[in-house]
Design goal:
The complex is a heterodimer of chains A (about 130) and B (about 425).
Chain A lengths: L1 E9 H5 L3 H21 L2 E6 L7 E6 L2 E6 L7 E10 L3 H9 L8 E6 L10 H4 L2
Antiparallel strand pairs in A: 1-5, 1-6, 2-5, 3-4
Chain B lengths: L1 H29 L2 H22 L5 H20 L5 H11 L2 H6 L1 H15 L6 H12 L4 H7 L4 H17 L12 H20 L7 H20 L3 H14 L2 H4 L19 H16 L5 H13 L9 H14 L3 H15 L1 H13 L7 H13 L3 H14 L3 H14 L2
Helix pairs in contact in B: 1-2, 1-3, 1-6, 2-3, 3-4, 6-7, 7-9, 7-10, 8-9, 10-11, 10-12, 11-12, 12-14, 12-15, 14-15, 15-16, 16-17, 17-18, 18-19, 19-20, 20-21
Classes of the chains: A alpha+beta (about 130), B mainly alpha (about 425).
C-alpha cells in the first residue's frame, strides 16, 4: 500500500539551531532516503521551500485570486513530503518514526486514496 | 523471463508459508518486534534478488533467518552513525553465534509458540492482544484487521504501537511460559482466539464477508496451537469452533435473515467439520483434564449429532451446562443453561432462571437475555411481557439481521 508522509516543521526550531545542526539533518535525511530506497520502501521524497515562497491560488466564479503564503496560518508548516510503499499502516508509522525530522517536527501519515472514474448520470454531468 | 517469474512465484509462496515462522525466530534473535519486521522485509527483498541469480536454497527458512539477521546488523551499524547506543547492540548481535542460535530445530518450532504467548500476554489489554495476534501471528495487515473489526485503521494502528511499546518497556519475555504458569497463560491465548472466532461468527449478514474470514483465521490459529501445544483445552477450543462453524451455512436464510438453531435446515450443516470437531472433542474428553471450552464443545456436539430439535437430548445438554456453570460461573453461561432447562422442563422454568439472573443485576444490557426472556413469555402466552422484553432487546441490539429478527417476532405477537 502507498502512503504519503507529510513533514510538518516549526521554523523557529530551526532558527534556534547552529548551521552545523541544520546541515546534519539534511545529510541524515538523505541517508535515510537511501536506506529506504535500498529496502524498497521509497517512492520519492521532496523538501519544500519555506512559507514565504508560497502562494495560495483559488478560482471562484471564474475569477482567480492569489494570496501570499500558505493556505492555513499555523505555527507548523509543510516542510516536505515523502511517498512510500509499505505493507500496512503500522509499517508506515514505523518508517515515519525513523525519519530524522520526526525528532523535531510532526510526521502526518496519510494513506493514498485511489480514484477511479465514476459513472455520473447525464443530467448531473451536464453542468 | 519465465524463470524470473517462476522465482517471483516461489518467493511469494515461501512468504505465505514461512514469513510468520521466520518473523517469530527473528524476534527471538533480535529481541525487538520492529527490528525483526524490518529484517523480515529485507530478507525477502534480498531473496527475490539472490534466488533469481543462484536459484532457491535447499532450506529457504534458514536462509531467510540468516539473511534477516545480517540485514538487521547492517541496518543497526548504519543507524549507529546517528545513534551511538545502537553500536553496542549491533556488536552484541554480531558476536552471538549464529549457528548456536539456529541449531535446534525444536527451538525454531517453539518460536511461533513464543510469539503467540507474547502477543496474548495478560499485561496487554484484550483488544491489543487481539490486534497484535492477528497482525504478527496471522500476518494480516492493520487495515484488514481494522475492516474486520469495524474500527478506524488509525485507532487500531495506535493499539498495536502501544502494545509493542508495552512489550519493550515492561520487558515482557519472549518465551513459552513455565509449566506452573501455563494454565493461566494458555487461558489468555484461548480467550483471544475465541474472541477472534466470535467476532467473525456473530457477523451474519452478506455485507460482512471480511468478518466471516475472522472465523477461518481463528480456526487456523486453533489448529496451529493444537499442533504446537496439544493441551486438552486447546483441542477443546478447536473442536468448539469447528462444531459452531459447521452450522454457518444454515444460520442465515438466502436473504440474509437470521435462522435460529431450532429452525435450521440441518442438511446444510457441514458434516466434515462436525466429524473433525467430534473426534477432537473425544480426544479432549479422554484426557480428563478438560475445562470450559471442551464442555462447550460437548454441548455443541449434542446439537450437531441430533437430527432435529425434538430429538435433541436436552437432559444431556442441561447436565453439561450444570458442570460448565461450576467450571466457569459467568452470567452468559447461566443464560444458556436457562435456555436448555426451558427445553427440558418447559418455559416457566427458564423464565424463573432468567429473572433470577436479572435480579442479580446481571445481563441487563445483553440483548440476547431479553430476547430469550421474551421467547419464554411468548410460549407461556404472556404476550404483554413478551412484547416488553422484545422491545428491550431491540433497543440493545446493534446488528441489522438481529434487529429484523426481533421485529419479525414482534409482528408475530400481533395485538
Amino acid at each position: 500500500m502507498k502512503y504519503a508522509l507529510l513533514v510538518y516543521l516549526e521554523e523557529a526550531k530551526f532558527d534556534a539551531m547552529t548551521q552545523r545542526e541544520r546541515d546534519s539533518y539534511v545529510n541524515a535525511s538523505l541517508d535515510n532516503d537511501a536506506e529506504l530506497a535500498r529496502s524498497g520502501h521509497f517512492i520519492m521524497a521532496q523538501a519544500l521551500k519555506t512559507p514565504p515562497h508560497a502562494v495560495s491560488v483559488r478560482k471562484r466564479d471564474g475569477k482567480v485570486s492569489v494570496t501570499d503564503g500558505p493556505f492555513a496560518e499555523t505555527k507548523e508548516h509543510l516542510g516536505g513530503f515523502m511517498l512510500i510503499e509499505a505493507r500496512d499502516l503500522n509499517e508506515a508509522i514505523k518508517i515515519a518514526g525513523d525519519l530524522p525530522l520526526a525528532r523535531v517536527g510532526t510526521i502526518e501519515v496519510r494513506p493514498f486514496e485511489e480514484l477511479t472514474y465514476i459513472d455520473i448520470p447525464e443530467e448531473e454531468a451536464a453542468r | 523471463m519465465n524463470e524470473a517469474r517462476g522465482i517471483e512465484r516461489t518467493v511469494e509462496a515461501i512468504y505465505r508459508a514461512e514469513s510468520r515462522r521466520v518473523l517469530a525466530t527473528l524476534i527471538r534473535l533480535l529481541s525487538d518486534f520492529d527490528l525483526a519486521e524490518e529484517a523480515l522485509h529485507d530478507a525477502f527483498a534480498a531473496a527475490s534478488e539472490r534466488w533469481r541469480r543462484d536459484g532457491a536454497p535447499a532450506n529457504p527458512r534458514a536462509w531467510l533467518v540468516s539473511a534477516g539477521r545480517f540485514k538487521a546488523i547492517d541496518r543497526l551499524r548504519r543507524r549507529a552513525r546517528f545513534d551511538a547506543s545502537l553500536t553496542e547492540l549491533a556488536e552484541r548481535l554480531d558476536a552471538e553465534n549464529q549457528d548456536a542460535a539456529m541449531r535446534e530445530a525444536e527451538e525454531i518450532e517453539d518460536d511461533r509458540l513464543r510469539l503467540i504467548f507474547t502477543c496474548c500476554h495478560p499485561s496487554l489489554p484484550p483488544d491489543a492482544q487481539l490486534a497484535l495476534t492477528l497482525r504478527e501471528v496471522c500476518g494480516l495487515t492493520t487495515e484488514e484487521i481494522a475492516r474486520a473489526f469495524l474500527t478506524a485503521a488509525p485507532t487500531l494502528a495506535q493499539r498495536i504501537v502501544r502494545a509493542k511499546t508495552r512489550i519493550r518497556d515492561a520487558k515482557i519475555p519472549y518465551e513459552v511460559p513455565a509449566r506452573t504458569d501455563l494454565p493461566d497463560r494458555l487461558d489468555s491465548v484461548l480467550h483471544t482466539i475465541y474472541l477472534v472466532f466470535n467476532e467473525g461468527y456473530s457477523a451474519s449478514s452478506g455485507a460482512s464477508l471480511t468478518r466471516h474470514d475472522l472465523s477461518g483465521e481463528a480456526i487456523r490459529l486453533g489448529r496451529l496451537l493444537v499442533e504446537l501445544l496439544p493441551e486438552p483445552e486447546a483441542i477443546g477450543l478447536l473442536a468448539l469452533m469447528l462444531l459452531q462453524e459447521s452450522r454457518r451455512p444454515a444460520r442465515t436464510s438466502p436473504s440474509g435473515e437470521l435462522v435460529l438453531l431450532a429452525d435450521q435446515d440441518r442438511t446444510l450443516w457441514d458434516r466434515k467439520q462436525i466429524e473433525e470437531g467430534t473426534a477432537l472433542l473425544e480426544r479432549a474428553l479422554f484426557s480428563r483434564r478438560f475445562g470450559p471450552y471442551t464442555l462447550q464443545a460437548a454441548i455443541a456436539a449434542v446439537h450437531a449429532n441430533a437430527p432435529d430439535t425434538g430429538a435433541t437430548d436436552w437432559g444431556e445438554i442441561a447436565g453439561l451446562y450444570d458442570i460448565l456453570l461450576q467450571a466457569d460461573p459467568s452470567p452468559v453461561i447461566a443464560l444458556n443453561r436457562a435456555a436448555a432447562i426451558a427445553m427440558r422442563d418447559g418455559p416457566a422454568a427458564g423464565l424463573a432462571l432468567i429473572d433470577a439472573i436479572f435480579a442479580r443485576g446481571e445481563l441487563l444490557d445483553y440483548h440476547l437475555a431479553h430476547s430469550a426472556r421474551a421467547d419464554f413469555c411468548r410460549r407461556l402466552g404472556r404476550t404483554a411481557d413478551a412484547r416488553a422484553s422484545y422491545l428491550q432487546a431491540l433497543s440493545l441490539t446493534r446488528q441489522e439481521p438481529e434487529r429484523r429478527f426481533i421485529e419479525r417476532r414482534l409482528a408475530e405477537l400481533g395485538e
